[in-house]
Design brief:
eight-stranded mixed beta barrel; 18 helices; binds ligand C2E; binds magnesium ion
């Protein structure tokens, strides 16, 4: 028999511990164990059902905080229905050989146990609230948990020196298409878990939605975290055999030390800006925020806001840069390059193309260019001029468009331009999925008699697969790949240049060398049997009238 004072002290401690914040599980368990011993209990089990229906079906969770392994008979069975209609059932067991309990003892136990049940259901509710408040529907920590993390760290003066970040997974739409949505979800989750583990208990990663995440971690774990950012194999089957490489486009803001956060915006604005800039670059190194980017952001907004109207007003002009046959000096083609004529100023493509590539605006611009080029060629043909093939740049952003081919043909046919006058320039891609799209598009154009060129070959991830597996007509070798002169024959890049040209010729590709600026370079090209050059040495990109003058002249002076 437990005396009344002992009971009162249990009651008091129980009430205190179950209302304590933060909840201290250890002292709670200690108290439970002590009570169970005092009351000679063998076991206590609590079952929790979200709804009465789930109770009927036996679908609930059960907890057991004490069990000495000798449970035999049920002493008490308490069932409570909470305000939210959840059901909580507590069962207390005694051992086999024991004296009968007094009525008073059972009443004491009943009271204590109801407090425990009330507490358990309250905790469940709190956990649920935490889940709703701090996790999204897929079980990822959400922005609110990041905000809470920042608040707590800020109040404890621990933010200074931390690294905060925003990232988007690179090509995740493609990953989903490649391995299926369900596997994509698995990959996303495992990548997130991998990062959380690398960041340790002092770091946090939260999902903003889709494949966008934010978070913070300590400098000590930077190396490992950066490694995962730059690309990590993630398995999407149980055996861990099927893997896909996942990388992130990361913007980081290194918090100064000391650092006091006044609002979340102090951090969010910066990591978002750096993140956007990371998305625009191909390299997998995180982009570090700096104040210059703020300006850039205003510029991005402006371009995006003005683009539609500018397109309607035909503010974009086609400039033509001649391509010249190196042997004969004959004009053999041109590349159409876009210029934005804005309040009489000429805005170069680098100032707006990357921005238009942030969404699909670029696709509309490319079709605008194609449309204007076709109209010009049609006119040249009608005027009896010697029209040349013109290449138009098409952004990678088009590749996922299943109707791309039809759309191109429609524009060309609308102007009744023979297909061989049109060439589409595409750049190489970095992922397998895009590679397949690229191949599909190039083969389709090929069948229609439209020429295709791989642009900027030699920078980035040029792979030989690209020219071996896709039936291009033209290889455009980037200016950075062209040797400055013929002096150092043993120089590795000179050798590579030679071999790439040989290879291209072997498989029947026409080679256009971009960025030819000097007579020395032209000489190198001659010695390597290159066919066609495009560059300032011959002409800069020219406005229409100047280019038409070149068409009529046909041969470059000096030949
Ligand atoms: P790109 O397609 O590789 O075009 C060649 C770029 O090299 C052009 O720059 C051209 O002016 C420049 N260039 C030509 N010869 C020389 C030279 O001798 N020396 C040097 N240093 N540069 C030379 P631009 O016109 O500024 O265009 C830059 C890039 O913008 C283009 O690179 C292309 O990727 C993109 N772009 C331009 N117009 C369009 C367009 O209508 N659609 C799309 N999607 N992209 C475009
Ligand atoms: Mg080009
Ligand atoms: Mg190029």
């Amino acid at each position: 028999m437990v005396d009344i004072e002992r009971y009162n002290s249990f009651l008091e401690r129980l009430v205190r511990i179950t209302h304590e914040e933060p909840y201290n599980r250890n002292s709670y368990l200690e108290l439970i164990t002590e009570m169970c011993k005092e009351y000679r209990l063998a076991k206590g089990v609590t079952r929790f059902y979200q709804t009465p229906m789930m109770e009927t079906r036996g679908l609930g969770d059960s907890f057991c905080d004490f069990d000495n392994g000798k449970a035999e008979k049920i002493l008490l069975n308490i069932r409570i229905e909470t305000q939210t209609k959840a059901i909580i059932v507590g069962t207390v067991y005694g051992e086999a050989e024991e004296e009968e309990r007094t009525e008073e003892e059972l009443v004491q136990l009943d009271t204590l146990y109801r407090i425990i049940l009330g507490f358990v259901s309250r905790r469940r509710l709190l956990n649920k609230l935490e889940e709703f408040g701090f996790y999204d529907l897929d079980g990822y920590r959400n922005f609110r948990s990041f905000a809470r993390f920042l608040d707590i760290a800020n109040s404890e003066n621990r933010l200074g020196g931390m690294i905060t970040f925003h990232f988007d997974l690179r090509n995740f739409t493609m990953v989903n298409r490649e391995i299926g949505r369900a596997n994509g979800d698995t990959v996303l989750r495992r990548y997130y878990d991998m990062l959380q583990e690398a960041m340790g208990s002092n770091g946090i990663i939260s999902r903003l939605g889709g494949d966008k995440f934010v978070g913070a971690f300590d400098r000590e774990v930077k190396r490992r975290v950066y490694e995962i950012f730059s690309g990590a194999p993630v398995a999407y089957d149980d055996a861990g055999e099927k893997k896909i490489n996942v990388a992130a486009a990361v913007g980081v803001y290194m918090l100064p030390n000391p650092f006091m956060m006044k609002s979340y915006g102090d951090i969010m604005d910066k990591i978002m800006i750096a993140g956007e800039s990371a998305k625009r670059q191909a390299s997998s190194v995180p982009v570090i925020y700096d104040d210059k980017m703020k300006m850039a952001k205003a510029h991005v907004k402006q371009v995006q806001n003005e683009f539609r109207a500018a397109l309607e007003n035909e503010e974009f002009a086609v400039y033509y840069q001649p391509k010249v046959d190196i042997e004969t000096g004959k004009l053999v083609g041109a590349e159409a390059l876009c210029r934005w004529i804005k309040e009489r100023e000429i805005v170069p493509p680098m100032d707006f193309i990357p921005i238009l590539e942030m969404n699909t605006d670029i696709c509309d611009l490319d079709f605008y260019m194609l449309d204007h080029v076709c109209a010009d060629i049609r006119r040249w043909l009608d005027q009896g001029r010697e029209a040349v093939r013109v290449s138009v740049n098409f952004s990678r952003k088009h590749l996922v468009d299943i109707d791309l081919l039809d759309k191109i043909i429609r524009v060309v046919d609308k102007h009744k331009v023979p297909h061989e006058y049109i060439e589409i320039e595409l750049t190489e891609t970095t992922t397998d999925v895009l590679f397949r799209d690229l191949k599909r598009v190039v083969c389709g154009l090929q069948e229609q008699g439209i020429w295709t060129a791989v642009d900027d070959f030699g920078i980035g991830y040029s792979s030989l697969n690209l020219i071996r597996d896709i039936p291009w007509n033209v290889l455009k070798v980037d200016k950075s790949f062209v040797p400055k002169n013929n002096e150092d024959q043993d120089n590795i890049s000179n050798k590579m240049f030679k071999h790439v040209i040989m290879l291209a010729h072997d498989i029947g590709l026409e080679c256009v060398i971009e960025g030819v600026e000097s007579i020395d370079q032209l000489e190198v090209l001659r010695q390597n049997n290159c066919n066609i050059a495009q560059g300032y040495f011959f002409d800069r990109p020219l406005p229409l009238e100047d280019f038409e003058e070149r068409i009529d002249r046909k041969i470059y002076p000096g030949y």
